[in-house]
Automatic annotation (TrEMBL):
Domain of life: Bacteria
SUPFAM superfamilies membership: Hypothetical protein YwqG (SSF103032)
Pfam family membership, one: DUF1963
Lineage: Bacteria, Pseudomonadati, Bacteroidota, Flavobacteriia, Flavobacteriales
Record protein name field: DUF1963 domain-containing protein
InterPro entries: DUF1963, YwqG-like_sf
Amino acid sequence: MKIFSFNRNLKSRISKEILRLPWEIHPEEILSLLDHSIEIRTKNTKSECKIGESKFGGLPDLPENIEWPTLNDIPFGFLGQINLSEIKIDKSGLLPKKGLLLFFFSTRQEDYRDENLKKLHKVIFIKNLQNLSSRIYPDKYDELAKFDESKIGFLDRFNLPSYQNYKISKLNLSDEDENTLFDADDIIYEETNSNLDIGHQVLGNPQAVQGDVHYPWSLQSIGQKLKNLSELKEDERKLVKRNQENITLLLQADMLDDNPNFNKFGCSGALYFGIEKDDLKNQNFNNTYFELQNS
């Protein structure tokens, strides 16, 4: 699938339209939150993906010495894999230049009730791609997670944080400006010709279905399940607020995409994988965070 190049005029077009909106706050403060992201577009083709090629769905490509990740003896669902050498538009320079990232997640409803979300996923990073082979589905694999293999390509994009994100909260926006944020999102949607409401992306501001994803990620970083900030101890609240700013989006997957047939799994929203910035810089993918949101 074609890998799209960096669009130098996109940010300028979006910025001009956002500046025209009737903000009460100085619009430059809004523009400062506009972050570069890498959008993923899917496409079904008759030809199979090559070993180590970026894709959603299908079967993972792994070395023999790496086991299929499980939780409570049940295999995780395989979401997809990204060959980092195919991404030519990482403006931030945060991603490794080479290697393969594979994403797995729990498909059992009881896990989401009983377990910390941090346990409900696995990100595997393979540096050397010479000894990869395609796996077969293991025993006890969830039939609803047998997604169709779909090739993917990458486009440069810009987006604003979700309305309950800590970056937005710091601005103390008026009710009118919070409503105007939705108009700004509509502008971005139109300018980028997005074909999904949430969409797939790497890096940038996560496009949350239910307000924000940095908060549940940060709760996971201190070993807590989802709860209100007011329920935490004072030292926990400080850690959560601080850690929100240290975790960045690694992958956002829109589960309503028909190409890989993600929607048969039953999630009406998106999956979000996060990672601390230092861990990403050091290529440590053993400490990642997870969130599932339904609309």
